[in-house]
Amino acid sequence: MVAMKKFWKILPLRDGGSDGPLPPSEYYNLNHWKRLFYRIKYRPRRVADLVMIFFSIFLEWLGSTLLAPVTPWYIEDLAPDMNQGTAASILMAAYAVGTFLASLVTGPLSDRLGRRPVFLSAMTIYTVAQFLMANAWDIGSFAGFRAMAGVAAGTRPCIMAYLTDSSRPIDMKLYGVFMGLFVVVGQSLGPAIGGALASVSLSFPFYFIGVISAILLVFMYIFLRESLVKDEHGMPVNRFARRPEDKEPPANKYLWPTVVCLAIASFSGQYLQINWSTVFGLVGADQYHLSTSENGGVLGIQAIASIVVNCIYLPLTHLLESALLGSIGMLISIGIIGVPFIDNLVGVIFLGMCIQAGTALYFAGMAYFNSVIAPPKKRGLINSSVMGAANVGGIVGPLVGGDLYDLDPTYPFYLSVILSCHESLSEIFK
């Protein structure tokens, strides 16, 4: 027992690197790629921390859409007597429920306990939940275990706080792009992987993700460091302030109105994404008679638009303000209204890419927005407020989308257009 306690005390392993020969002023004048290679050479532990954080994002959001292409088959297996739209809504919304509940507490909790304990706890729950989902016996148990898995994705407020703790605000544009890329790639590969692995058995995708997440959990226990730094009074501080008086930014009377605008935009963007994933699974099976792997492949193709947007986002910010880019993105998303009025799969894929590209223009800048407005002692709280609103959209999207689809296949798309316009206005006023 004593030996075990001593073992846990040495975790995470200490960082043996150095800051290298360059002073901070010269280091920050390097471009992003040169700084990456410089870090790999002199302080690889920082790079390892970021790799684990971003891979956890990828894994969590891969899990959110893993079910999308096989939803009709899971409904047939777990709830054959239930209305298809309602059952699809329950299955897809369960993950978002867990994400929402966790996002409300992980930010403030990480302000008190630290970022590392929150990460490790959430990833442990996520890993266990994957194996439980693989052995679910009805739709109720599956939804409950899926909500457990969603808890891990609810750590995004903590992730943004972690990055803000250890980075300059200007660097958050780059990290916001990385977050967007890993979310998009995870969401896009989820249907493709889920559809392909489900050809082995319906439960096999969850065993596969469970093993991968268990491996990541071990690495995080051993290597992931704490980012939160507190002063002698136990208050979080700004590590990148040049003067002592800058460690806490001046009071901002527009802080919470700005947070409200961010929350509205995040709700709308997440609704659009999750609603489309839910409804397309039904449209693909009902209207175009796609198989599980074909359904997943088509959703994966659409995500190319999001990947492209995230890759060009930084150059775009040199031309237009991030808030304006987000507003333009929501206007692009309005194109989804054409889906129920065309009978062409290629056209549907193109319009789906409009949704993916439009929402990516907002979410790529969200980490930067939050880092600019959030004082150190409220980082977790503000990130939780914004991400909580986004996760409400993730719950409402499949619940409303599935039932609206049962009433009339055009109704989910009308609501998507209304929310696109709403989010565009929120971006402008923000």
UniProtKB/TrEMBL annotation:
Main localisation: membrane
Record InterPro entries: MFS, MFS_dom, MFS_trans_sf, Sugar_transporter_CS, Tet-R_TetA/multi-R_MdtG-like
Compartment annotation: Membrane
Membrane-crossing residue ranges in chain numbering: 50-75, 87-106, 118-137, 175-198, 204-224, 296-316, 323-342, 348-369
PROSITE patterns named among the record's database cross-references: MFS (PS50850), SUGAR_TRANSPORT_1 (PS00216)
Domain Major facilitator superfamily (MFS) profile residues, every copy: 49-430
Listed GO MF terms: transmembrane transporter activity
Keywords tagged on the record: Membrane, Transmembrane, Transmembrane helix, Transport
Record membrane topology: Multi-pass membrane protein
Domain of life: Eukaryota
Gene Ontology CC: membrane
Keyword Membrane attributed: yes
Listed Pfam families: MFS_1 (PF07690)
UniProt name for this protein: Quinolone resistance protein norA, putative
Species per Swiss-Prot/TrEMBL record: Perkinsus marinus (strain ATCC 50983 / TXsc)
Upper lineage: Eukaryota, Sar, Alveolata, Perkinsozoa, Perkinsea
